[in-house]
Amino acid sequence: MTMALGNRIARPHTKPQTAKPQVAERWYSEKRLGGLSRFAFAITVLNIFGHLFLGFEQSWATPFVALAAGYGTDLIGETIDARASGRRPRYAGSFVDLVRFLLPAHISALAVGMLLYAAENIAAVAFAVSVAMASKYVFRVAVATDQQGRPVTRHFLNPSNFGITVTLILFPTVGIAPPYQFAENTYGFVDWLLPLIVIGTGSLLNLKATGRIPLILAWVAAFATQAAIRAAIDGTPLAAGLMPMTGFAFVLFTFYMITDPATTPARRPGQIAFAVAVAAAYALFMELHIVFGLFYALTLVTAGRGLWLFVTQPRAAAVEKQAVAPSMTPAE
To answer: What are the residue ranges spanned by the domains of the chain?
Structure first.
């Protein structure tokens, strides 16, 4: 059910004033394409090197099946949404327009295919990717109004994370790819070089394009804090709670998943609160002995944020309408 009720926020009788977007919101207006291109290139290279050298456990068919499911679902969703809105599909026009449109699907598909391990059940991976892309069109909330007073909507669930979460719940035989697959065949200085490359490129991208560095710092600090609190309460070694932070998967989650600019707050206080909430939810799942806590926690917090935006639409729209580019299309 789409959570976008435009008639509640399309009330202004005066033309909204335009203002220079914040760094975190310029992702949508001037840096979105560049950021997506870098994301897509980085995750493509990682998948190729992962299957060739690092030790990815999934079959070579997995990324291709994931890409087919992602492209197909996104094209179908955009076609339906464009017809319902009476506009031209964003992929129409030229081959370049098609490539630009498919960049988010490319990223989500490769991320899901890389992080899930379904053995021979490749259909489960296709299902996860399809759910991820479909969620962008189903779970939406109005965040602002454009210059004509029409609602500007945005998806609020992290697509890749949501697809993974649903699949883990519905398919008991599907799990997360083992952490060692990112460095199974490496040794020596390469074991240090790979995380440093991911941290360096992720930091640069989030600094220049998405503006989510405060979220990253708050997330790392909050994760360490919850580990210390759980160690004190449960009497367990602190090192055990901090151990996930040393894994390659945690680094990828920190720099490339939790920082999704479409599903996280733009302003610094909101980013900090978001990061703390995800860490707290993860701690709760750990205390309840529920595995895959990172993915469930992020889904829970993004869903809660979407509900909050839905409930507070009139006020949120008045605050955000000057920060969001008015030319944003409904499917972004």
So the answer is: 6-320
